[in-house]
Amino acid sequence: MEDEKNEREDEKEMEKEMEDEKYEEEDEKMEMEKEMEDDKNEEEDKKEMLCKEFSYSFSSNVRSQRFGAVMPGYDFMLELREEILPPNAHWLANERLHVSITHSKTHKNSMVSSFTSREDLIKVLLASCFMSLYAGLKPVEFQGQVMVSCNRLSWLPVLPVVRTIIVSHFSSPLDIFSAHKGISNLHLRLANMSPRFSKDNIHMNQSLFPPLLPRLTALEQKGYQDAVDFLKKERWMNFLA
Questions:
Q1: What is the per-residue pLDDT across 133-169, written as a single tens digit (0 to 9) for each?
Q2: Is the model's pTM score more than 0.85?
Q3: Angstrom distances, CA of residue 193 to CA of 66, 188, 219, 226
Q4: Residue 149 forms beta bridges with which residues?
Q5: Span 111-135, pLDDT tens digits
Q6: What is the pLDDT of residue 6?
């Protein structure tokens, strides 16, 4: 009887030890996952800071030119080639990022989502930013064709398969936009855009001469809040939590 009792106690002790080991392994796993998540968040914070620093520096350089972005001899497109994209950027963007560009002669619009190299990705992004005179005189060449920014009929391209969330810096009846004070109910029809008539919408000066850092920071926060307000309105915040 005594032997059986001791044997049961030994079995219980072994079960307890196994249970403790299981908990320890789970704790170690959770700790490792937390460290990986922290490392990932830290890396994302670094990337965000890098993008901000580049944007602030770029706007400062444009503002320092006598005639801003259209200063003769100043090529802001060259600055946009800054080594900010990671070496595998084209792989990360492939079939995820869709960029609208237009053939400079035929004016045929194309949506590019396949990138075979980092250089291809950069060229497509530069082409999507190119507007004659404002961005210089020499358009971007991509796959042997001269391409420029999207044409007047495709300023806001919409994907045919999924819902396209449209973000605009104009105050207009779109998904995410900048709500301006003192706006009117009058709209200007520009292709598939309908910006409202407002003082803030006429911001040619800010296009040529980007605002100072405090104003840029305020615009950044405003854009963030506009996006949050949209997600709340659509009841999508819970999916991002």
A1: 677 677 788 888 877 776 555 566 777 777 888 887 7
A2: no
A3: 32, 8, 21, 18
A4: 101
A5: 899 999 999 998 898 888 887 767 7
A6: 66
Residue spans of the domains in the chain: they are 67-154, 155-236
Cβ-count burial 225-236 (b if 16+ within 10 Å, e if not): ebeeebbeeeee
